[in-house]
Amino acid sequence: MKTKYAWQQVILHWLSAAVIIWATISGFYVALFDVSPQLKDWMGFFNVSLTTVFIPFFILRVWYLFKLGKPKQDKPATLASRAADIAHMLLYINISLVLISGVLMMERDINVFNLFVLPQPIDNLALTQLFNRIHIVCCATLGGLVLLHILAVIKHELFGNRIMRKMWL
Questions:
Q1: Measured distance CA(142)–CA(13) in Å, rounded
Q2: 105-135, pLDDT tens digit by residue?
Q3: Is 35 part of a structural domain of the chain?
Q4: Which residues are bridge partners to 111 per DSSP?
Q5: Are 142 and 95 contacting, i.e. CB atoms less than 8 angstroms apart?
Q6: Residue 18 and residue 157: Cα distance in Å, rounded?
Q7: What is the mean predicted confidence (pLDDT) over 6-35?
Q8: What average pLDDT does the segment 65-80 reach?
């Protein structure tokens, strides 16, 4: 019986965690606080580049989820385990919405670390502004879901359910 996630899933999980936590905290930081225009521009450039590069890794992560699944539980499914499955699926859906809306809200070409440029996907200001609003709501929702995820892991670990062992190499 498979008791841990595959190494590919573990690496993609921690890569996702790092990118999502960085982009969420830094994005809300520049949005909510008075920062210099230079920092705001740099952070925007860096986050757009980082999350654009992240998209194929996230697609790969979703593919591995469906291909390899998750480790089997030793006990029968409970209401709590079903709720956790739903919460995980909401995380995947929300991350997808953040990434899609992030691309579609761009009002200019997407410069990726000055290595290559992707053309602006939509050239309609009303639509890009709509996707910007969707992006903001989805980012806030994602922040809440990530916090819930982290709190659930802490709760499980404190009460003896060592679920973190499944997510280490």
A1: 15
A2: 999 999 999 999 999 999 999 999 999 999 9
A3: yes
A4: 117
A5: yes
A6: 21
A7: 97
A8: 85
- CB-based contacts of 146: which residues, under 8 Å, 6+ apart? 20, 21, 24, 91
Rounded Cα gap, residues 32 and 34, in angstroms: 7
Q: How many domains does the chain have?
A: 1
- How much is the pTM? 0.94
Evaluate whether 82 touches 41 at the Cβ level (below 8 Å): no
Parent domain of 40: 7-167
